[in-house]
Amino acid sequence: DAGVIQSPRHEVTEMGQEVTLRCKPISGHNSLFWYRQTMMRGLELLIYFNNNVPIDDSGMPEDRFSAKMPNASFSTLKIQPSEPRDSAVYFCASRQGAAGTEAFFGQGTRLTVV
Amino acid sequence: GQSLEQPSEVTAVEGAIVQINCTYQTSGFYGLSWYQQHDGGAPTFLSYNALDGLEETGRFSSFLSRSDSYGYLLLQELQMKDSASYFCAVRGNTGGFKTIFGAGTRLFVKA
Measured between alpha carbons, how far is B24 from A62 in angstroms, rounded to an integer? Predict the structure, then answer.
């Protein structure tokens, strides 16, 4: 398996634009996480899906952020409109089941909003 | 809610042993994990403890005391390549077993 695949790897966009980050989890994993990493706030959990259903989105910072998982092999994180403070590295991770011990991370998307 | 505390930085010399501590608070405990992240890379899994005691995997060991809400990562025979950030992460048994990460400990290994 190729691991968790995220795209794009880098994204530079202007303030106010819509940004869509994509994630393909490892086949057979039914738990998916979106994290945001910054120097100031570390690794923050944004949202967690289990069997394609959002279980906990309490970490989503505000209404500008939304996430979907239309099927077991694809998830998106959308920011609309984007702001400079959204600049961060966004990681997607997947895990095999709620009882799985190990989360596998994608390589991340480095987002810069200017 | 869930929260974790770990030191921000640790420095050690090559060949030495270093221990990175982690204390946590969670409304329900399921397990404590450790992850390593090199600059520019993604976090990678090192170990997981659900029960009290020591888990050993090569040069790395992880310990958990549930009664003390405390764990540590022990790195032996330090190598330069071990210079990285190390995160403890706690999984509670609420909120669908979500995993929350600590702020990370930056380990500097000197020659």
Answer: 27
